[in-house]
Amino acid sequence: MCSFVFLSKLYCLVDPVEVGDIQSTLLDHRPVISAEVRYFVREFEEKRGLRECRLLENLNKMVQEANEQMLPSNLEEMSQKLSDISKRLEAANHMAERVQQRELEAQQNTGLQANMEKLKEDWAEFLKEQQRLKEEVDEEHAKAVGELSSRFSEKKKDLSQFYL
Fold first, then answer.
1. Are 14 and 22 in contact (CB under 8 A)?
2. pLDDT tens for residues 46-98?
3. Three state DSSP letters for the chain
4. Is the CB of residue 32 less than 8 Å from the CB of residue 41?
5. CA–CA separation, 147 vs 126, rounded Å?
6. 142: number of CA atoms within 13 Å, CB side?
7. pTM to 2 decimals?
């Protein structure tokens, strides 16, 4: 507001063309700002620009050297380690398969042993049954022999009486 009052008083004293020049000088700071910006950029480029460029160039060289030297050696090491890991994995798989095979055989042996025990029990029962049947047959045979011998002795008596 104050600058407006000052400008309005000044307007009365000065020619209208000069009022625009005075107003642009007082309120338009673009030339000053652009000069300051140019100065700042020039100072930055002179003092830090070369140092930053050198730093970036050194970093770029280091990255390129690392890519050239480390990458092939790392790839070789990595492929070597992968082949070692692959061999170890195959050995571990082989060992696991052997353990599984042994467990399966043990289970089968356990099953076979159980079957053998059952067969032995069945065989013992079969032998007992055969012994019982043999005793029955022997008893029947003894009875039959006894009956036949008593009949034969009766017949022999009958015959001896008949001949006498």
1. yes
2. 766 677 778 888 888 888 887 777 766 777 788 888 899 999 999 999 999 99
3. CHHHHHHHHHHHHCCHHHHHHHHHHHHCCHHHHHHHHHHHHHHHHHHHHHHHHHHHHHHHHHHHHHHHHHHHHHHHHHHHHHHHHHHHHHHHHHHHHHHHHHHHHHHHHHHHHHHHHHHHHHHHHHHHHHHHHHHHHHHHHHHHHHHHHHHHHHHHHHHHHHHC
4. no
5. 31
6. 6
7. 0.33
Measured in residues, the chain has a length of: 164
- pLDDT tens digit string along 11-50? 555 555 566 676 666 676 777 788 888 887 777 777 666 7
Do residues 3 and 26 touch, judged by C-beta distance below 8 A? yes
